[in-house]
Amino acid sequence: MKDGMVLINKPEGISSARVVSQVKKIFHVKKAGHTGTLDPFATGLLPVALGQATRLSRFFLGGAKRYRATITLGIETDTYDRTGRIVHQADPENLGAIEPEQVQHAVAGFTGRQWQTAPSFSALKHQGQPLYKLARQGQMIQKPARPIEIFSIRMTAVNLPEFDLDVHCSGGTYIRSLAHDIGEQLGCGAHLSGLCRTGVSHFTLDQAHELDILSGLPRDRSVIPMTDCLPFLPRIQVDDMMAEKISHGMKLSDQNVRSCRTEPLPAGTPVRVMDPEDRLIAVIEADPDKAEYNYCCVFSR
């Protein structure tokens, strides 16, 4: 099986791109890609798409994520994490006066929808260049704040000046920025000193495989077939005639799609199309201006 998802428990000290390169070699595939990068110092869940499944990555980039984070108060860095250059240190007396209850109150205030500014050291681009490359050249570009949502945030351990958090958040949330913002809220500064991603969409860390043992695992244990990759999207099942029509990219009317499902489809949500053998053959989306569906992607059978 060379089309599907492999869930990797990324070790510390290796880039996401390097993980993808190793997975490509293990599975002897030409195409592979991750569904959202992890910084080299971070660990945890990194879904890697193989073959045709690389076209599914877009459906995960904006999906919800879960993290375990360690934040250290009193020290700010230019990267907002432990790998950066220290730019500010709090007065020890002021830092020592901060109580766990104050931290808890500050953390709780970050629940919900909000605007967040990404770190200048990030993969976001400015005039075609990644911000981290410009930052290394001394150009600290700050992009406009973006809307994010933190669904839940919970302190799990406190040993000040360090404390641990479990965070469930929308795609696009920077936990480094969250650490920085908590430090600002408390008036002492802070940085992210540890990070583990524990969930991406419906995938969880306990499903992931260690990179160093991946080559010894049977393919049916390590690769999640494309059919099972998008359970969070609504689905329709088509007959052979419509499956053939879809394979040639022919137009799909709203009536064509509605005839394959007894319940109405959610508006504005992509839809999985399964063939009679329950294989994923396409992802489609309603055209907002016409009574038809557009193809997000079509897969060879």
Overview of the structural elements:
The protein has helices spanning 16-27, 58-61, 92-96, 100-108, 131-136, 175-186, 219-222, 240-247, 254-258, and strands at 4-10, 32-34, 43-50, 65-73, 75-77, 86-89, 112-116, 125-126, 129-130, 146-159, 162-169, 190-200, 203-204, 209-210, 224-225, 235-237, 252-253, 271-274, 280-286, 292-298. The protein has 3 domains: 4-63 and 202-228, Pseudouridine synthase (2-Layer Sandwich), CATH 3.30.2350.10; 65-200, Pseudouridine synthase (2-Layer Sandwich), CATH 3.30.2350; 235-298, PUA domain (Archaeosine Trna-guanine Transglycosylase, Chain: A, domain 4, Roll), CATH 2.30.130. The protein is of the alpha+beta class and 301 residues long. The two termini are 13 Å apart. The strands form 4 sheets. Strands 1, 2, 3, 4, 7, 10, 11, 12, 13, 14 and 15 form an 11-stranded mixed sheet that branches. A 5-stranded mixed sheet has the order 16-18-19-20-17. The protein is 22% helix and 35% strand. The protein contains 9 helices and 20 strands. The radius of gyration is 22 Å and the shape is elongated.
Summary keywords:
301 residues, alpha+beta, Pseudouridine synthase, Archaeosine Trna-guanine Transglycosylase, Chain: A, domain 4, 3 domains, five-stranded mixed beta sheet, 9 helices, elongated
Please give a quick description of this structure.
Helix content is 22%, strand content 35%. The protein is α+β, with helices and mostly antiparallel strands and 301 residues long. The chain has three domains: 4-63 and 202-228, 2-Layer Sandwich (Pseudouridine synthase), CATH 3.30.2350.10; 65-200, Pseudouridine synthase, CATH 3.30.2350.10; 235-298, Archaeosine Trna-guanine Transglycosylase, Chain: A, domain 4 (Roll), CATH 2.30.130.
